[in-house]
Amino acid sequence: MFPMLPVNIKLAVRSLNRNRMRTLLTMLGIIIGVAAVLTMVALGTGARASVEGEVSSAGTNIIFVRSGNYTRGGDAVGIVSGKGAATTLVAGDADAIVAGVSGIKALSPGVSLRTFISSGDARSFSRVQGIAANFATIYSWNMNSGRMLDPAAPQPEAIVGSTLAATMFGADADPVGKTIQVRDVSYTIVGVTDGQAEDHAEVLFVPWQVLQQSMGQSHLETLTIAADKAGESSRIAAEVSTILRKRHGIEGTPSEGYLAGQGGIGGTPDDFTVETQAAQALTQGLYTPAAAFALANLPKLDEVTLEEMSDTLDRASDTMTALLASIAGVSLIVGGIGIMNIMLVSITERTREIGLRMAAGARSGDVALQFLIEAVTLSMVGGFIGLVLGLLSAQLIGWSLGWPATVSIGAMLLAIGIAALVGLVFGSYPARRASLLDPIEALRTE
Predict the structure, then answer these.
(1) Residue 240 has what pLDDT?
(2) What is the pLDDT of residue 118?
(3) Ordered alpha helix ranges (H), 174-297
(4) pLDDT given for residue 287 in this prediction
(5) Rounded distance, CA 136 to CA 143, Å?
(6) What is the dihedral sign for C-alpha 63, 68, 72, 76?
(7) In this structure, are strands 143-146 and 122-131 parallel, antiparallel, or unpaired?
(8) DSSP label at residue 84
(9) How, if at all, do strands 185-193 and 122-131 pair?
(10) Do 59 and 139 form a contact (C-beta atoms < 8 A)?
(11) Mean pLDDT of 179-188
(12) What one-character DSSP code corresponds to residue 279?
């Protein structure tokens, strides 16, 4: 039986090629089914990745490192007040943190000042913030127009907040490509951001190295760190503190409790402050003793938050999988019924041919195998066409939605396998019906 398989495939292709339009229309159900399934799988994967990125951060994945340290009212709960201002935070600290702490998604050094900025006749007293290019990733910026800063740009570039852009250039104007002056440096505006966090809409963002040089200082004022997962923020903050203490020559280990560690121990306070976004939100407006009490169990709070987010993503993924499975089942069943229908029609049209083959010595199993191979071939060709169309459709829709629409090799192989299985299942009945024909009655058929 198997040595005749190549011959049977060749005969199947020749038979399907006799009526190309009918073959194409028959394959249409499989093509649409496979293409739709692959498109939805790709978009489902992209949507999950997009939602996971948003939910995993949930606005609590940012860690702030600031130069200097002063904790007002900390003496009442045993927290050292701190050193106040400091100039010990440097770019080398950022490199050491990236190299020594796992789970960091992005890190941006920062410096800032309030000064007059001008462009032509327009002039405004605003905050100018020096950042790295991945600052946009940390805050999940969407650009109203233009692009993010290019670290390799030959000329200084700037990103302007949407509110500041309207103030300087008018509500309907696009400032991209225009020049803006900060002190003695001219920057070319390359983008407008809609970011609202910490009044980002009213800020001018420039490369931190350029602003640092124009300010005549060698130290950094801030490090903004994004954790891959919100539940890791407290752990990353603790490790960052350890690295900075070691690099800055601060002896001792931090005390238990979040705020208690801010001032150091043994009479040697830290010269920096590390605070998570969750801690900042929870302690806003609170006096130090109350803040210390609220943050006593912050790591446990992070763990609960991460567990809840994981459960939410799992439930969403299960719902999406069930939806995809239902759509795939309906689409492929419709395609399979189409294959069964056309194979029954083909048997009726080729009854005399079947009788001649049986009269020439073909067994019932040979006839059944021939029609079964035709059904599987028809289904698999439709599956391959649907695969190509599905991939193209997924890329097009993913591009339009801004989602990372990807399909794994396993999903592609599964789609082709299911298409072959549909042909095998729905081709079995017509194949068996053809094999049970009486050769004499078949030869009498006109």
Answers:
(1) 93
(2) 92
(3) 208-215, 233-247, 277-283, 288-294
(4) 47
(5) 9
(6) positive
(7) unpaired
(8) B
(9) unpaired
(10) no
(11) 92
(12) H
Q: Is 90 exposed, middle or buried (CB count within 10 Å of its CB: 0-12, 13-18, 19+)?
A: middle
- DSSP 8-class letter at 355: H
Say which residue the tokens 């969403």 belong to.
Answer: 316
Quick one: how many helices (H) and strands (E) in the chain? 14, 10
Is residue 226 a contact partner of residue 105, using CB atoms and an 8 Å limit?
yes
| Average pLDDT score over residue span 219-236 | 86
User: How many C-beta atoms surround the C-beta of residue 383 within 10 A?
Assistant: 28
User: What secondary structure does DSSP assign to 23-76, as a single string?
Assistant: HHHHHHHHHHHHHHHHHHHHHHHHHHHHHHHHHHHTT--EEEEEESB--TTGGG
Q: How far is CA 69 from the centre of its chain?
A: 37
Over residues 335-359, the mean pLDDT reads 80
* Dihedral angle computed from the Cα positions of residues 42, 46, 47 and 48, in that order, rounded to the nearest 10 degrees: 100
Task: Give the side-chain half-sphere CA count within 13 A for 97.
Answer: 31
Average pLDDT, the chain: 77
Cα atoms in the 13 Å half-sphere on the side-chain side of 185: 21
Locate tokens 């954790």: which residue? 227
pLDDT above 70 (res 58)? no
How far is the C-alpha of 255 from the C-alpha of 4, rounded, in Å?
Answer: 79
pLDDT, tens only, 90-147? 999 999 999 999 989 999 999 999 999 999 888 999 999 999 999 988 888 888 888 9
State residue 394's pLDDT score. Answer: 79
The pLDDT of residue 114 is: 93
- Position 214 confidence tier, pLDDT thresholds 50, 70, 90: very high
The two tokens of residue 403 are: 């989602």
- What contacts 180, CB < 8 A, 6 or more positions away? 117, 118, 119, 158, 160, 168, 186, 187, 189, 204
Using 50, 70 and 90 to split pLDDT, how confident is the model at 272? confident
Give the chain's end-to-end CA distance (angstroms, integer). 30
Q: What pairs with residue 187 in β-bridges?
A: 180
Q: How far apart are CA 133 and CA 208, in angstroms?
A: 9
**DSSP H stretches of helix in 66-215:** 91-100, 135-138, 162-169, 208-215
